[in-house]
Amino acid sequence: MAGRDEEHITEQPEPTDDDPPAPAHRPAHLLLALALGCAAVLAWYAAFPLTDALPEAQADDYGSAAWFPRALAVGAAVVLVLSMGRRGGALVAGVLAALAGVIGLAGYLTWRHPEVTNWPVPTPMELRPAAPLALSLMCAAVALLCVPLALRRRPWFGISEAAAGRAGAVRRRIQQVMVLLIVGCLLGGALAGAGSLGAALVRGERETLTLPRQEVRSVPEERLYDGALRTPSPTVWPKGVPSERAWEREFDSPVALSTCEREKEDGNGTEVTYHQDTVVGVDDDLAAEGASVVGVDTRTGKERWRYTVPTTRHATVEQVGVSEGCAVLVLVDNSVTTLDAFDGSVRGRLLLSSLHLSEQTNPGGGKGGAWWEFITSTRPRLDDEGKPPRVVPLPGQDYAYLLTPKSTVLAVRKSDGSTAGVGFDDDACGYLVHGRYMEWGQAMVTDDCIGRLRSFGIEEHDGEGETAPLLYGKPQMTSPVPAECGGKGWATAAVEGVDRLLVLYEGCPADRRGAWWVTFEPEPWRDDPMVRWERWTGYSPRIREATQPVHTHTGFVLPHSDGMLVVNDFYRKPSDTRVVPLPGRDPAVAFAMEEVQGINSDRMRDNGLLVLGASGKVHAVVETITGANEFKVADSQRSPVAPVADCQGRTGLLAAHTSPTMLLTCTSEKNGSTKAVAYGGEERAENWYEPEE
């Protein structure tokens, strides 16, 4: 009897017209259902990064999905589990999963860039989230695999039949469920991961605004002060022209110098000031498909830090601004990152636009040819594609200024890389910025390209809920360009003096062989700020466009066909200008100053000046600060040295302030690559003067 009962239990019931016969039960069916259920449950979490597996930046990049399709996905999982394989349950679960997938896909496809309306302090930008697409892909897989379950008319898990038999059969069924549940969870997780990966692949590279990836290799703490000068103010300057070749290096860009200050407590708890000179340039690593901004010790040539941006369809290092005061700003696509030049750490990152650079329109309204660029104290020399130099020096002030693709001006704080304000589009075709006015803040010059030059101070901006433009402030000093120029010239360089600004105006008249210099003197006690134009005597075609003048104790120093032209800072009449000839009547083309405003301008001593001549020779000039403030040539090279000697491009000169080191550069006009050679020398003895009471 027992045998017949057992035989009766194991026999399959005869099929009927309503319930046709089906194949024997296979555990794979249960495994499939459990995997689908787990995938549907995990689809709920597709709106979030899975646990802590993603870095914060990538988690933000993943985005989120709406709650309704996620609820439908969980509903599909619940129906699959509760129906225990019933045909109707699989059908309902498939419909719910398909509906969730359609809604998720619609959410992905209909996402739009958020509009930025609250400049000058932009809201955080969002990118097209991958989560809705991942949810859609997972739910589509659930819906498709529910089809074979719905086609089976009989339950594939005979729990009632097993319960009617031996207790061991029930126990085996429970063990099978536990094993299949574990395996189903693993397969479900794999399916969810495949959906997320598929979403990332379908979406491709970041299609909307997000900060580009970065790799930061800053100076280790134990080596932070290696080679730094321990002094309240850097005063090291070479005696004569440095001649001992110290190191050389190739860069894939022009280079610039930043002198940094950092305080550290000594063993007695006293704050000690350290200074460090850093040469900054760009290395393009084609093998690794990335570009790096590198900081090199000026004295030793050793690399101190490296900031790398992996190159993608959108992201590459567009331009680098190097400022006195230890700030390095890096433009990558539609973002700017502010670095600390002392150790290479990141001070802040800012998203500039809700569109990639390639998607932005140029001033003419078309796509392409649009870029952000730094406003500097000299007119940029554009390459064959019309782009400015890849590395440029910035004045050592609080703000850095960017010219937007719409020809407006954006101010960025160097301290933390945040937005300070934006100016309106005033149709200017040229901007220069250098120094500050005593009463009106940082100084800017605009060339209206209609025969008019303007200068003004830039108003301060606290950034706390203010929406008014930072630019422009007071005073608005406007002056027509002299008629002799015929509207053919352009402002090429600016330098700060004692509460006044000197601007070079080159390229006029029609033959482009004439030039002027102009001083803007705000004088807040006057109702009519003074603007003075004077012919640039000694202007020579051998003097290249946009040579940066310097300011000394005496006044402004400009290039001259016979050497240097000195313009008294308290200029009143032409006789106050004088020519300082250099050996061989060598026209000056580049200057390197010992005194830098805000770094070491608070001491009284003879002022050192290195001058690079058009011949390629370097001359050491000393300005005495007593009596008539004379300029004396103390030393000159007998012949040009590398890399200037055989340079076929643009030559340059930099000088450190923490060691007697001079850096000569040769920059290719074709691709902007630079060869830099450093020369060390003997430190000049101190020669101090007490200020008069």
TrEMBL record:
Region Disordered, residue ranges: 1-24
Biased composition (Basic and acidic residues): 1-11
Listed transmembrane segments: 30-47, 67-84, 91-111, 131-151, 177-202
InterPro entries from the UniProt entry: WD40/YVTN_repeat-like_dom_sf
Keyword field: Membrane, Transmembrane, Transmembrane helix
Chaperone found in the keyword field: no
Name of the featured protein: Uncharacterized protein
Source organism (scientific name): Streptomyces regalis
